Amino acid sequence: MPSLDQFAQEKLDDLQRRHLRRALAETVREDGIWIERAGKRLLSFSCNDYLNLTQHPAIKQAAIAAIEQYGAGSGASRLVTGNHPLYAQLEARLARIKQAEAAVVFGAGYLANAGIIPVLIGRDGLVLVDELAHACLFAGAQLSRGTVMAFRHNDVTHARELLERHRAEHDHALMVTDGVFSMDGDLAPLAELLALANEHDAWLMSDDAHGLGVVGGGRGSSFVGNSHIPVPLQMGTLSKAVGAYGGYLCASSAVIDLIRNRARTLIYSTGLPPSCVAASIAALDLIEREPGYAALPVQKAKAFTKAAGLPEAQSPIVPVIIGTEVATLAASQMLADEGYLAAAIRPPTVPDGTARLRLTFTAQHPDEQVARLAGLVRERILN
Ligand SMILES: *Cc1c(COP(=O)(O)O)cnc(C)c1O
Questions:
Q1: Residues 86 and 128 in one domain
Q2: CA 5 / ligand 1 centre spacing (Å)
Q3: Could you read off the pLDDT of 149-200 as tens digits, one per residue?
Q4: Pair (279, 339) in one structural domain
Q5: Per-residue pLDDT tens over the stretch 347-368
Q6: Which atom of ligand 1 is nearest to the CA of 111?
């Protein structure tokens, strides 16, 4: 066997032995909540389409109209000829929702984090990352070539210790955290982190991939409980509650202008298809117009946690932590047999020993199905 294939096969065999091998399952999404896999219809509690906007008729129509007007693709980087007129509308809309001076849209949330952090932090800088933050925040931090340190999850005291000990050794410091944690569903203590950052002349960035559209009246994690925490760097994605694709950063005009000049994932990657940008604009219209609809996913998640006897949900994401990979796969299979898609999440996506079902609740999940799922989880998984 050629060494390349031998290398690949050995890696795969090792993953298989540890129950960590993954496979892509072909999935047909029928509507916002039902999917079909291997001929079986399942109610999905695993999509991040919190408002079911991927399937919304007006939003699909906006995407189709953009294809008719501007074409299927953007044809080049935004810095060359890919900057079609819909971008300015979307960026103005994002800045308004986030109460920031300006916004810039990237090809994806991952590309945003991989692009933003190295613009702000170089070899002499420090990046502090919550240990449970999304993989692409760590990827962006590594690309900066600065010193990267993880602080214990949501532990402001630990972040303070690290800043007190290390801030002076670095020219600049950046703290990054998920606003809503993607695998745990809890919220970051943004007000405390911002105060800490300000004390140490560090900059704070929140990743609101799971906040925009679903918490804080739809505005995201800086706006929970009618507060407004002025996080200077608010990034997020257009591919979850917004239902389309792309990433963004909202910040001051100066920062956004610098990012447009320097972020390599913006400069050297093709602009989004016009249809994605148009769908995002239409989705944000709906989110701003219908805050009651945007509140539904968290309401459903709270109904679930109450009925299942779990701690109250803070977001549409509810982890059911099981522990071993084998038991988690069995629980996922049991729920599939009962008609539900609840994907098993295993290391390295989550820490060793915390394999889990990650349930996501969406606006259109019927209440009686949420109640039935809660019964199954309570009776057949948690006890
Ligand atoms: C999904 C996710 C991303 C990546 O966004 P994409 O647009 O899917 O690339 C970034 N951060 C967090 C916290 C996420 O959950």
A1: yes
A2: 31
A3: 999 999 999 999 999 999 999 999 999 999 999 999 999 999 999 999 999 9
A4: no
A5: 989 999 999 999 999 999 999 9
A6: 9
* Residue-number span of the structural domain to which 349 is assigned: 25-54+293-380
Report the domain count for the chain: 2
pLDDT in tens, 256-312: 999 999 999 999 999 999 999 999 999 999 999 999 999 999 999 999 999 999 999
Do 361 and 271 lie in one domain? The reply is: no
Q: Which helix (H) or strand (E) holds 302?
A: helix 296-308
| Domain final position from 236, 261, 289 | 289
pTM score above 0.90 = yes
Pocket-testing residue among 106, 110, 176, 212, ligand 1, by greatest number of atoms within 8 A of Cβ: 110
| Percentage of the residues of the chain whose pLDDT score is greater than 70 | 100
CB atoms within 10 A of CB 5: 9
163 within 8 A of 155, measured Cβ to Cβ: no
Nearest residue to 90 (alpha-carbon basis) of 366, 345, 284: 284
Among 261, 289, 317, the domain-final residue is 289
Numbers of helices and strands, H then E, in the chain: 14, 14
